[in-house]
Amino acid sequence: MDKPSGKDKAEAPQAAAFRAFAENFRWDDVSLLAYKEEGTAPFKSITRQVLFKNPELACELRYFEVAPGGYSTLERHQHTHGVMILRGQADVLVGGEIRPVKTHDLVHIPAMTWHQFRTRGDEPMGFLCMVNVARDKPQLPDESELQKLRADPAIAAFLAPR
Amino acid sequence: MDKPSGKDKAEAPQAAAFRAFAENFRWDDVSLLAYKEEGTAPFKSITRQVLFKNPELACELRYFEVAPGGYSTLERHQHTHGVMILRGQADVLVGGEIRPVKTHDLVHIPAMTWHQFRTRGDEPMGFLCMVNVARDKPQLPDESELQKLRADPAIAAFLAPR
Lengths: 162, 162
Prior knowledge:
Two copies of one chain form a homodimer.
Chain A: E1 18-19, E2 33-34, E3 44-52, E4 59-71, E5 81-87, E6 89-94, E7 97-102, E8 106-109, E9 115-119, E10 125-132, H1 143-150, H2 153-159
Antiparallel strand pairs in A: 2-3, 3-4, 4-10, 5-8, 5-10, 6-7, 6-9
């Protein structure tokens, strides 16, 4: 995997009408970015590419890719996500539910709902995520929230380091 | 191909967290809809599925599928589109440019820019299209606009019935 760049020059408006899909789930004129700033939240082996972020569009479309064994941050927020898996497989936590998902499956993350994506198997897992441009910051669970989540043995197993 | 239903009951908010990808580029709990009302604009062999349309999201994500030999309406509007090809191949007109595109390529349709998708080859062509929920109605070209477009021989060939 290429090393993601730390900062977000690629988040400038992308005006080109055509941008081709390239090797290894990269796109022409789309930078490989860090998922988040290191140390701000727990996550593992995940990158971000901003596919559409234009002044006239009220949402962005991002592509996140998680290497085998990796996971997104366990978080919640007022804004919602519309997600489509684009490659590979994952186990996904949404609220109290954990489901296996695969390419082209849809996941809707409602407001203020704990969610996390974890890869399944030996392949990278990539997903599209549509989100409002104007949105609140994600919240991380404190110890009492984690205890509530772990009260469900399936969620406890999902959250345990593997 | 299943027969699309005429009206849009599937455009109600889709609250389910998980909706699986099914056979033939259908999704669980997502209705197959007509592209547009018949007779309102020229198009051929195209269906629509609304993948995400939620009150909290400022954009919708739709999946359009064009059967071999089909095409979308030649139109323009103030709102813009963020498009990702999801299956197959197409020739795409954006403004003065025609490009062949294939799975996972990105297309940005700027404001007030004539655009049309036409399938390429013998496979169905499907694409995701992100668009603002609040948007203007598409405009169709009148004869004088068509003449301007056809002044470019490549565009004239693209627009000619095949």
